[in-house]
Protein backbone atom coordinates (compact mmCIF):
# COMPACT_ATOMS: atom_id res chain seq x y z
CA UNK A 1 0.00 0.00 0.00
CA UNK A 2 1.41 3.41 -0.96
CA UNK A 3 2.10 5.92 1.78
CA UNK A 4 -0.56 8.25 0.39
CA UNK A 5 -3.19 5.52 0.43
CA UNK A 6 -2.19 4.54 3.94
CA UNK A 7 -2.60 8.13 5.18
CA UNK A 8 -5.97 8.36 3.49
CA UNK A 9 -7.07 5.02 4.95
CA UNK A 10 -6.21 6.23 8.46
CA UNK A 11 -8.08 9.47 7.87
CA UNK A 12 -11.14 7.53 6.71
CA UNK A 13 -10.92 5.38 9.83
CA UNK A 14 -11.01 8.48 12.01
CA UNK A 15 -13.97 9.81 10.04
CA UNK A 16 -15.75 6.48 10.55
CA UNK A 17 -15.28 6.68 14.32
CA UNK A 18 -17.09 10.02 14.31
CA UNK A 19 -19.82 8.61 12.07
CA UNK A 20 -20.19 5.62 14.38
CA UNK A 21 -20.72 7.98 17.32
CA UNK A 22 -23.35 9.95 15.36
CA UNK A 23 -25.20 6.83 14.19
CA UNK A 24 -25.21 5.39 17.68
CA UNK A 25 -26.57 8.59 19.23
CA UNK A 26 -29.27 8.91 16.64
CA UNK A 27 -30.23 5.21 17.06
CA UNK A 28 -30.38 5.79 20.80
CA UNK A 29 -32.55 8.91 20.40
CA UNK A 30 -35.12 6.98 18.37
CA UNK A 31 -35.15 3.82 20.49
CA UNK A 32 -34.06 4.43 24.08
CA UNK A 33 -33.30 8.00 25.23
CA UNK A 34 -35.74 9.14 27.95
CA UNK A 35 -37.75 12.33 27.36
CA UNK A 36 -35.77 14.42 29.85
CA UNK A 37 -32.43 13.32 28.42
CA UNK A 38 -33.39 13.97 24.82
CA UNK A 39 -32.05 17.50 24.45
CA UNK A 40 -28.64 16.61 25.96
CA UNK A 41 -28.31 13.75 23.52
CA UNK A 42 -29.38 16.02 20.64
CA UNK A 43 -26.71 18.56 21.66
CA UNK A 44 -24.03 15.88 21.74
CA UNK A 45 -25.14 14.62 18.33
CA UNK A 46 -24.97 18.15 16.88
CA UNK A 47 -21.43 18.53 18.26
CA UNK A 48 -20.24 15.21 16.82
CA UNK A 49 -21.88 15.74 13.45
CA UNK A 50 -20.37 19.22 13.12
CA UNK A 51 -16.93 17.71 13.82
CA UNK A 52 -17.65 14.97 11.30
CA UNK A 53 -18.71 17.56 8.68
CA UNK A 54 -15.53 19.59 9.27
CA UNK A 55 -13.38 16.47 8.87
CA UNK A 56 -15.22 15.32 5.76
CA UNK A 57 -14.81 18.69 4.00
CA UNK A 58 -11.31 19.62 5.19
CA UNK A 59 -8.46 20.93 3.01
CA UNK A 60 -6.39 18.03 4.31
CA UNK A 61 -8.84 15.46 2.93
CA UNK A 62 -9.16 17.34 -0.34
CA UNK A 63 -5.37 17.33 -0.73
CA UNK A 64 -5.22 13.56 -0.12
CA UNK A 65 -7.99 12.88 -2.65
CA UNK A 66 -6.41 15.21 -5.20
CA UNK A 67 -3.07 13.40 -5.01
CA UNK A 68 -4.70 9.96 -5.08
CA UNK A 69 -6.49 10.90 -8.31
CA UNK A 70 -3.13 11.59 -10.04
CA UNK A 71 -2.74 8.82 -12.66
CA UNK A 72 0.37 7.19 -11.14
CA UNK A 73 -1.35 6.82 -7.75
CA UNK A 74 -4.85 6.09 -9.06
CA UNK A 75 -3.85 3.38 -11.53
CA UNK A 76 -2.17 1.41 -8.75
CA UNK A 77 -5.36 1.28 -6.61
CA UNK A 78 -7.65 -1.77 -6.53
CA UNK A 79 -11.34 -1.50 -7.52
CA UNK A 80 -12.58 -0.72 -4.01
CA UNK A 81 -10.13 2.13 -3.48
CA UNK A 82 -10.64 3.46 -7.00
CA UNK A 83 -14.37 3.63 -6.33
CA UNK A 84 -13.85 5.17 -2.88
CA UNK A 85 -11.49 7.89 -4.10
CA UNK A 86 -13.64 8.75 -7.13
CA UNK A 87 -16.84 8.80 -5.05
CA UNK A 88 -15.44 10.98 -2.26
CA UNK A 89 -13.63 13.34 -4.66
CA UNK A 90 -16.80 13.92 -6.70
CA UNK A 91 -18.80 14.57 -3.55
CA UNK A 92 -16.22 16.97 -2.18
CA UNK A 93 -15.85 18.83 -5.50
CA UNK A 94 -19.60 19.47 -5.45
CA UNK A 95 -19.61 20.61 -1.82
CA UNK A 96 -16.67 22.97 -2.42
CA UNK A 97 -18.58 24.80 -5.14
CA UNK A 98 -21.24 25.89 -2.62
CA UNK A 99 -20.47 29.24 -0.91
CA UNK A 100 -20.27 28.78 2.87
CA UNK A 101 -22.85 31.53 3.58
CA UNK A 102 -25.33 29.98 1.22
CA UNK A 103 -24.83 26.53 2.74
CA UNK A 104 -25.44 27.88 6.25
CA UNK A 105 -28.59 29.71 5.08
CA UNK A 106 -29.81 26.51 3.39
CA UNK A 107 -29.37 24.41 6.54
CA UNK A 108 -31.11 27.06 8.64
CA UNK A 109 -34.04 27.23 6.21
CA UNK A 110 -34.27 23.42 6.20
CA UNK A 111 -34.86 23.26 9.92
CA UNK A 112 -37.25 26.25 9.91
CA UNK A 113 -39.22 24.73 7.06
CA UNK A 114 -39.41 21.26 8.66
CA UNK A 115 -40.70 22.74 11.87
CA UNK A 116 -43.39 24.79 10.10
CA UNK A 117 -44.37 21.80 7.95
CA UNK A 118 -45.02 19.81 11.13
CA UNK A 119 -47.24 22.60 12.51
CA UNK A 120 -48.99 23.05 9.18
CA UNK A 121 -49.69 19.32 8.92
CA UNK A 122 -51.00 19.26 12.51
CA UNK A 123 -53.33 22.18 11.76
CA UNK A 124 -53.99 20.93 8.22
CA UNK A 125 -53.20 24.45 6.99
CA UNK A 126 -51.14 24.59 3.81
CA UNK A 127 -51.00 28.41 3.84
CA UNK A 128 -48.57 28.26 6.82
CA UNK A 129 -46.18 26.06 4.88
CA UNK A 130 -46.46 27.66 1.42
CA UNK A 131 -43.88 30.48 1.94
CA UNK A 132 -41.32 27.96 3.26
CA UNK A 133 -41.99 25.61 0.38
CA UNK A 134 -41.42 28.52 -2.04
CA UNK A 135 -38.13 29.26 -0.32
CA UNK A 136 -37.00 25.61 -0.28
CA UNK A 137 -37.75 25.35 -4.01
CA UNK A 138 -35.76 28.51 -4.82
CA UNK A 139 -32.84 27.46 -2.63
CA UNK A 140 -32.83 23.96 -4.12
CA UNK A 141 -32.61 25.44 -7.63
CA UNK A 142 -29.74 27.66 -6.45
CA UNK A 143 -27.97 24.76 -4.72
CA UNK A 144 -28.14 22.62 -7.88
CA UNK A 145 -26.74 25.54 -9.91
CA UNK A 146 -23.75 25.69 -7.55
CA UNK A 147 -23.05 21.96 -7.35
CA UNK A 148 -23.75 21.14 -11.03
CA UNK A 149 -23.48 24.34 -13.09
CA UNK A 150 -25.20 24.15 -16.48
CA UNK A 151 -27.22 20.99 -15.69
CA UNK A 152 -31.02 20.67 -15.61
CA UNK A 153 -32.09 21.15 -11.93
CA UNK A 154 -34.39 18.14 -11.74
CA UNK A 155 -31.80 15.81 -13.27
CA UNK A 156 -29.35 16.93 -10.59
CA UNK A 157 -31.93 16.15 -7.92
CA UNK A 158 -32.71 12.70 -9.30
CA UNK A 159 -29.04 11.87 -9.64
CA UNK A 160 -28.50 12.46 -5.89
CA UNK A 161 -30.70 9.49 -5.08
CA UNK A 162 -30.30 7.30 -8.16
CA UNK A 163 -27.07 7.84 -10.04
CA UNK A 164 -27.41 8.12 -13.79
CA UNK A 165 -31.23 8.11 -13.90
CA UNK A 166 -32.65 11.21 -15.65
CA UNK A 167 -36.09 12.80 -15.94
CA UNK A 168 -36.22 11.46 -19.50
CA UNK A 169 -35.81 7.88 -18.18
CA UNK A 170 -38.48 8.42 -15.54
CA UNK A 171 -40.92 10.02 -18.00
CA UNK A 172 -40.67 6.93 -20.16
CA UNK A 173 -40.89 4.25 -17.49
CA UNK A 174 -43.53 5.95 -15.30
CA UNK A 175 -45.57 6.74 -18.44
CA UNK A 176 -45.48 3.09 -19.44
CA UNK A 177 -46.48 2.00 -15.95
CA UNK A 178 -49.30 4.53 -15.59
CA UNK A 179 -50.85 3.52 -18.87
CA UNK A 180 -50.92 -0.15 -17.91
CA UNK A 181 -51.78 0.36 -14.26
CA UNK A 182 -54.80 2.70 -14.37
CA UNK A 183 -57.16 0.20 -16.09
CA UNK A 184 -55.83 -2.62 -13.90
CA UNK A 185 -56.44 -0.68 -10.66
CA UNK A 186 -59.95 0.28 -11.76
CA UNK A 187 -60.74 -3.32 -12.60
CA UNK A 188 -59.50 -4.57 -9.22
CA UNK A 189 -61.29 -1.82 -7.29
CA UNK A 190 -64.62 -2.60 -8.94
CA UNK A 191 -64.68 -6.09 -7.39
CA UNK A 192 -66.66 -6.77 -4.20
CA UNK A 193 -64.52 -6.58 -1.06
CA UNK A 194 -64.16 -9.31 1.54
CA UNK A 195 -64.24 -8.04 5.10
CA UNK A 196 -61.16 -8.82 7.21
CA UNK A 197 -62.04 -10.92 10.27
CA UNK A 198 -58.84 -10.71 12.24
CA UNK A 199 -57.91 -7.03 12.48
CA UNK A 200 -59.19 -5.55 15.73
CA UNK A 201 -58.44 -8.67 17.79
CA UNK A 202 -55.76 -8.63 20.47
CA UNK A 203 -52.11 -9.34 19.56
CA UNK A 204 -49.55 -9.25 22.36
CA UNK A 205 -46.61 -7.02 21.31
CA UNK A 206 -44.12 -9.51 22.82
CA UNK A 207 -45.61 -12.26 20.68
CA UNK A 208 -45.33 -9.95 17.64
CA UNK A 209 -41.64 -9.52 18.49
CA UNK A 210 -41.19 -13.29 18.44
CA UNK A 211 -42.92 -13.43 15.07
CA UNK A 212 -40.49 -10.77 13.85
CA UNK A 213 -37.56 -12.95 14.97
CA UNK A 214 -39.07 -15.96 13.23
CA UNK A 215 -39.50 -13.97 10.00
CA UNK A 216 -36.03 -12.42 10.08
CA UNK A 217 -34.49 -15.85 10.54
CA UNK A 218 -36.64 -17.32 7.81
CA UNK A 219 -35.66 -14.73 5.18
CA UNK A 220 -31.94 -14.93 6.03
CA UNK A 221 -31.20 -11.93 8.25
CA UNK A 222 -28.17 -12.85 10.35
CA UNK A 223 -28.95 -12.20 14.03
CA UNK A 224 -25.25 -12.48 14.95
CA UNK A 225 -24.65 -9.38 12.82
CA UNK A 226 -27.92 -7.64 13.60
CA UNK A 227 -30.18 -6.42 16.35
CA UNK A 228 -33.74 -5.13 16.72
CA UNK A 229 -35.54 -2.48 18.75
CA UNK A 230 -38.82 -0.54 18.81
CA UNK A 231 -39.42 3.00 17.51
CA UNK A 232 -42.31 5.19 16.34
CA UNK A 233 -41.56 4.51 12.65
CA UNK A 234 -39.63 1.41 11.51
CA UNK A 235 -36.15 2.01 10.04
CA UNK A 236 -32.80 0.31 9.38
CA UNK A 237 -29.49 1.73 10.55
CA UNK A 238 -26.08 0.41 11.54
CA UNK A 239 -22.35 0.31 10.99
CA UNK A 240 -21.67 -1.81 7.92
CA UNK A 241 -22.12 -5.54 7.40
CA UNK A 242 -21.31 -6.70 10.93
CA UNK A 243 -23.77 -4.57 12.90
CA UNK A 244 -27.12 -3.89 11.22
CA UNK A 245 -29.99 -2.51 13.31
CA UNK A 246 -33.69 -2.75 12.59
CA UNK A 247 -36.64 -1.17 14.38
CA UNK A 248 -40.35 -1.91 14.32
CA UNK A 249 -43.60 -0.61 15.77
CA UNK A 250 -46.19 -2.95 17.29
CA UNK A 251 -49.94 -2.29 17.24
CA UNK A 252 -51.93 -4.40 19.68
CA UNK A 253 -54.98 -4.65 17.38
CA UNK A 254 -53.26 -5.30 14.05
CA UNK A 255 -50.28 -7.61 13.47
CA UNK A 256 -49.97 -6.85 9.72
CA UNK A 257 -48.06 -3.60 10.17
CA UNK A 258 -45.26 -5.14 12.28
CA UNK A 259 -45.17 -8.34 10.22
CA UNK A 260 -44.63 -6.55 6.90
CA UNK A 261 -42.35 -3.89 8.37
CA UNK A 262 -40.17 -6.70 9.78
CA UNK A 263 -39.88 -8.26 6.32
CA UNK A 264 -39.30 -4.86 4.66
CA UNK A 265 -36.59 -3.66 7.05
CA UNK A 266 -35.17 -7.21 7.07
CA UNK A 267 -34.71 -6.84 3.30
CA UNK A 268 -32.75 -3.61 3.79
CA UNK A 269 -30.75 -5.33 6.54
CA UNK A 270 -29.88 -8.41 4.46
CA UNK A 271 -28.54 -6.08 1.76
CA UNK A 272 -26.30 -4.28 4.27
CA UNK A 273 -25.08 -7.55 5.84
CA UNK A 274 -23.99 -8.95 2.50
CA UNK A 275 -22.00 -6.14 0.94
CA UNK A 276 -18.44 -6.78 -0.20
CA UNK A 277 -16.36 -7.76 2.87
CA UNK A 278 -13.13 -6.24 1.50
CA UNK A 279 -14.89 -2.88 1.15
CA UNK A 280 -15.85 -2.66 4.85
CA UNK A 281 -15.60 0.93 6.11
CA UNK A 282 -15.59 2.50 2.63
CA UNK A 283 -18.43 3.94 0.50
CA UNK A 284 -18.04 0.85 -1.74
CA UNK A 285 -19.75 -1.18 0.99
CA UNK A 286 -22.72 1.17 1.19
CA UNK A 287 -25.37 1.40 -1.49
CA UNK A 288 -26.02 5.10 -2.04
CA UNK A 289 -28.70 4.46 -4.68
CA UNK A 290 -32.01 4.60 -2.85
CA UNK A 291 -34.01 2.83 -5.58
CA UNK A 292 -31.66 -0.15 -5.57
CA UNK A 293 -31.76 -0.37 -1.77
CA UNK A 294 -35.54 -0.03 -1.74
CA UNK A 295 -35.83 -2.74 -4.42
CA UNK A 296 -34.40 -5.21 -1.92
CA UNK A 297 -36.74 -4.35 0.97
CA UNK A 298 -39.71 -4.41 -1.40
CA UNK A 299 -38.66 -7.67 -3.00
CA UNK A 300 -38.84 -9.38 0.38
CA UNK A 301 -41.94 -7.52 1.53
CA UNK A 302 -44.07 -7.63 -1.65
CA UNK A 303 -42.75 -10.06 -4.24
CA UNK A 304 -42.05 -12.76 -1.62
CA UNK A 305 -44.00 -11.75 1.50
CA UNK A 306 -47.38 -11.07 -0.15
CA UNK A 307 -47.60 -14.56 -1.63
CA UNK A 308 -49.25 -17.73 -0.34
CA UNK A 309 -46.23 -19.97 -0.90
CA UNK A 310 -44.05 -17.70 1.31
CA UNK A 311 -46.35 -18.35 4.27
CA UNK A 312 -47.18 -22.02 3.77
CA UNK A 313 -44.02 -23.39 5.45
CA UNK A 314 -44.18 -21.05 8.49
CA UNK A 315 -47.79 -20.04 9.06
CA UNK A 316 -48.49 -22.75 11.69
CA UNK A 317 -45.58 -21.33 13.75
CA UNK A 318 -47.01 -17.81 13.36
CA UNK A 319 -50.39 -19.10 14.58
CA UNK A 320 -48.75 -20.71 17.60
CA UNK A 321 -47.34 -17.30 18.57
CA UNK A 322 -50.30 -15.10 17.59
CA UNK A 323 -53.16 -17.01 19.15
CA UNK A 324 -55.85 -14.72 17.72
CA UNK A 325 -55.01 -16.11 14.27
CA UNK A 326 -55.88 -19.68 15.35
CA UNK A 327 -59.13 -19.80 13.33
CA UNK A 328 -57.75 -17.88 10.32
CA UNK A 329 -56.57 -20.12 7.48
CA UNK A 330 -53.36 -19.12 5.72
CA UNK A 331 -55.31 -18.26 2.55
CA UNK A 332 -57.39 -15.70 4.40
CA UNK A 333 -54.30 -14.18 6.02
CA UNK A 334 -52.56 -13.77 2.65
CA UNK A 335 -55.71 -12.39 1.03
CA UNK A 336 -55.68 -9.57 3.57
CA UNK A 337 -51.96 -8.95 2.86
CA UNK A 338 -52.89 -8.51 -0.82
CA UNK A 339 -55.96 -6.37 -0.30
CA UNK A 340 -56.09 -3.54 -2.88
CA UNK A 341 -57.83 -0.34 -1.89
CA UNK A 342 -57.85 3.33 -2.95
CA UNK A 343 -56.37 5.27 -0.02
CA UNK A 344 -55.10 8.79 0.68
CA UNK A 345 -51.80 8.04 2.43
CA UNK A 346 -48.81 6.82 0.41
CA UNK A 347 -47.11 4.95 3.25
CA UNK A 348 -50.25 2.91 3.92
CA UNK A 349 -50.97 2.06 0.28
CA UNK A 350 -50.98 -1.52 -1.06
CA UNK A 351 -48.45 -2.64 -3.69
CA UNK A 352 -50.78 -2.05 -6.67
CA UNK A 353 -52.00 1.48 -5.92
CA UNK A 354 -48.65 2.58 -4.42
CA UNK A 355 -47.08 3.38 -7.82
CA UNK A 356 -49.87 5.89 -8.53
CA UNK A 357 -49.04 7.76 -5.30
CA UNK A 358 -45.43 8.10 -6.46
CA UNK A 359 -46.33 9.00 -10.05
CA UNK A 360 -48.54 11.79 -8.66
CA UNK A 361 -45.60 13.16 -6.65
CA UNK A 362 -43.28 12.93 -9.62
CA UNK A 363 -45.76 14.89 -11.72
CA UNK A 364 -46.05 17.49 -8.94
CA UNK A 365 -42.27 17.87 -8.91
CA UNK A 366 -42.35 18.30 -12.68
CA UNK A 367 -45.01 20.99 -12.23
CA UNK A 368 -42.73 22.73 -9.73
CA UNK A 369 -39.36 22.52 -11.48
CA UNK A 370 -40.28 22.24 -15.16
CA UNK A 371 -43.52 24.21 -15.44
CA UNK A 372 -42.91 26.61 -12.52
CA UNK A 373 -46.47 26.31 -11.18
CA UNK A 374 -46.87 28.76 -8.24
CA UNK A 375 -46.97 27.10 -4.79
CA UNK A 376 -50.48 28.47 -4.14
CA UNK A 377 -51.86 26.25 -6.92
CA UNK A 378 -50.19 23.02 -5.81
CA UNK A 379 -52.82 21.67 -3.32
CA UNK A 380 -55.60 21.87 -5.91
CA UNK A 381 -53.38 20.19 -8.51
CA UNK A 382 -52.65 17.40 -5.99
CA UNK A 383 -56.33 16.87 -5.24
CA UNK A 384 -57.28 16.77 -8.91
CA UNK A 385 -54.67 14.11 -9.57
CA UNK A 386 -55.85 11.98 -6.62
CA UNK A 387 -59.35 12.11 -8.01
CA UNK A 388 -58.20 11.25 -11.50
CA UNK A 389 -55.95 8.32 -10.53
CA UNK A 390 -57.66 6.81 -7.49
CA UNK A 391 -61.15 8.28 -7.59
CA UNK A 392 -60.86 9.85 -4.14
CA UNK A 393 -60.35 13.47 -3.10
CA UNK A 394 -58.57 14.56 0.11
CA UNK A 395 -60.90 16.43 2.46
CA UNK A 396 -57.98 18.43 3.85
CA UNK A 397 -54.30 19.16 3.15
CA UNK A 398 -53.04 16.91 5.97
CA UNK A 399 -54.26 13.89 4.03
CA UNK A 400 -53.29 15.58 0.76
CA UNK A 401 -50.21 17.59 -0.09
CA UNK A 402 -48.93 17.93 3.50
CA UNK A 403 -48.72 14.20 4.29
CA UNK A 404 -45.03 13.60 3.48
CA UNK A 405 -42.10 15.43 5.04
CA UNK A 406 -39.77 15.13 2.02
CA UNK A 407 -40.31 18.57 0.46
CA UNK A 408 -39.97 20.35 3.80
CA UNK A 409 -36.21 19.71 3.95
CA UNK A 410 -35.69 20.02 0.21
CA UNK A 411 -35.59 16.29 -0.62
CA UNK A 412 -37.07 16.88 -4.07
CA UNK A 413 -36.37 14.03 -6.49
CA UNK A 414 -36.44 11.38 -3.73
CA UNK A 415 -39.96 10.01 -4.34
CA UNK A 416 -39.23 8.42 -7.75
CA UNK A 417 -36.63 6.14 -6.15
CA UNK A 418 -39.35 4.35 -4.14
CA UNK A 419 -41.15 3.37 -7.32
CA UNK A 420 -37.95 2.61 -9.21
CA UNK A 421 -37.39 0.02 -6.46
CA UNK A 422 -40.63 -1.77 -7.42
CA UNK A 423 -39.92 -1.44 -11.14
CA UNK A 424 -36.48 -3.01 -10.62
CA UNK A 425 -38.20 -5.79 -8.62
CA UNK A 426 -40.37 -6.73 -11.58
CA UNK A 427 -37.19 -7.04 -13.64
CA UNK A 428 -35.29 -8.96 -10.92
CA UNK A 429 -38.21 -11.38 -10.50
CA UNK A 430 -38.18 -12.14 -14.22
CA UNK A 431 -34.39 -12.72 -14.17
CA UNK A 432 -34.58 -14.82 -11.00
CA UNK A 433 -37.32 -17.12 -12.33
CA UNK A 434 -35.38 -17.63 -15.52
CA UNK A 435 -32.33 -18.66 -13.43
CA UNK A 436 -34.00 -20.61 -10.62
CA UNK A 437 -37.40 -21.67 -11.94
CA UNK A 438 -40.86 -20.92 -10.52
CA UNK A 439 -40.74 -18.94 -7.28
CA UNK A 440 -43.78 -20.68 -5.77
CA UNK A 441 -42.15 -24.10 -6.22
CA UNK A 442 -39.02 -22.92 -4.39
CA UNK A 443 -40.98 -21.29 -1.56
CA UNK A 444 -43.34 -24.24 -1.06
CA UNK A 445 -40.35 -26.50 -0.58
CA UNK A 446 -39.16 -24.14 2.17
CA UNK A 447 -36.10 -23.22 0.09
CA UNK A 448 -36.26 -19.46 0.54
CA UNK A 449 -32.50 -19.47 1.29
CA UNK A 450 -31.88 -20.17 -2.41
CA UNK A 451 -33.68 -16.93 -3.27
CA UNK A 452 -31.84 -14.88 -0.65
CA UNK A 453 -28.54 -16.33 -1.87
CA UNK A 454 -29.35 -15.32 -5.47
CA UNK A 455 -30.00 -11.74 -4.31
CA UNK A 456 -26.79 -11.75 -2.22
CA UNK A 457 -24.70 -12.81 -5.17
CA UNK A 458 -26.39 -10.80 -7.91
CA UNK A 459 -27.17 -7.56 -6.13
CA UNK A 460 -25.93 -7.15 -2.56
CA UNK A 461 -22.26 -8.01 -3.02
CA UNK A 462 -21.37 -5.34 -5.58
CA UNK A 463 -24.51 -3.25 -5.40
CA UNK A 464 -22.67 -0.46 -3.63
CA UNK A 465 -20.20 0.17 -6.42
CA UNK A 466 -22.35 -0.20 -9.52
CA UNK A 467 -24.72 2.29 -11.11
CA UNK A 468 -28.38 1.16 -11.21
CA UNK A 469 -28.45 0.96 -15.00
CA UNK A 470 -25.35 -1.25 -14.99
CA UNK A 471 -26.88 -3.58 -12.38
CA UNK A 472 -29.97 -3.99 -14.59
CA UNK A 473 -27.84 -4.72 -17.64
CA UNK A 474 -25.74 -7.28 -15.78
CA UNK A 475 -28.55 -9.03 -13.88
CA UNK A 476 -31.47 -8.71 -16.30
CA UNK A 477 -29.70 -8.18 -19.61
CA UNK A 478 -31.94 -5.24 -20.48
CA UNK A 479 -32.64 -1.54 -19.94
CA UNK A 480 -35.08 -0.10 -17.44
CA UNK A 481 -38.66 -1.15 -18.25
CA UNK A 482 -41.94 -1.31 -16.31
CA UNK A 483 -43.38 -4.22 -18.33
CA UNK A 484 -42.19 -6.99 -15.95
CA UNK A 485 -43.79 -5.21 -12.98
CA UNK A 486 -47.06 -4.87 -14.91
CA UNK A 487 -46.88 -8.56 -15.87
CA UNK A 488 -46.36 -9.47 -12.22
CA UNK A 489 -49.42 -7.42 -11.16
CA UNK A 490 -51.60 -8.84 -13.94
CA UNK A 491 -50.61 -12.42 -13.23
CA UNK A 492 -51.09 -12.07 -9.50
CA UNK A 493 -54.27 -9.99 -9.35
CA UNK A 494 -56.13 -10.95 -12.55
CA UNK A 495 -55.19 -14.38 -13.78
CA UNK A 496 -53.68 -16.42 -11.00
CA UNK A 497 -55.35 -15.36 -7.80
CA UNK A 498 -54.42 -18.72 -6.18
CA UNK A 499 -50.98 -17.25 -5.37
CA UNK A 500 -52.66 -14.73 -3.09
CA UNK A 501 -54.99 -17.17 -1.45
CA UNK A 502 -58.30 -16.28 -3.13
ZN1 LIG B 1 -37.52 0.97 2.75
**CATH topology assignment of the largest domain:** Neurolysin, domain 3
Structural class: mainly alpha
Look at the structure and give the mean pLDDT.
95
Number of strands: 3
A few lines on this structure:
By secondary structure, the chain is an all-alpha fold. It contains 22 helices and 3 strands.
Keywords:
502 residues; mainly alpha; Neurolysin, domain 3; 2 domains; 3-stranded mixed sheet; 22 helices; 3 strands; globular; binds zinc ion
Commentary on this structure:
The chain is mostly helical and 502 residues long. It folds into 2 domains: 3-160; 167-499, Neurolysin, domain 3 (Orthogonal Bundle). Helices cover 63% and strands 3% of the residues. The protein has 22 helices and 3 strands. The protein has helices at residues 3-31, 38-56, 59-68, 71-74, 79-96, 100-123, 126-147, 153-161, 167-189, 205-219, 256-273, 290-304, 308-311, 315-321, 330-337, 354-369, 378-390, 415-436, 439-444, 448-460, 468-476, 483-495, and strands at 226-230, 236-238, 244-248. Strands 1-3-2 form a 3-stranded mixed sheet, with helices on both faces. α1 packs across α3 (59-68), α6 packs antiparallel against α7 (126-147) and α18 crosses α22 (483-495). The longest helix is centred in the N-terminal third of the chain and has 29 residues, at 3-31. It is globular and about 65 Å long. The relative contact order is 0.12. Residues 264, 268, 294, 297 line the site of zinc ion (ZN). Zinc ion is lined by residues 264, 268, 294, 297.
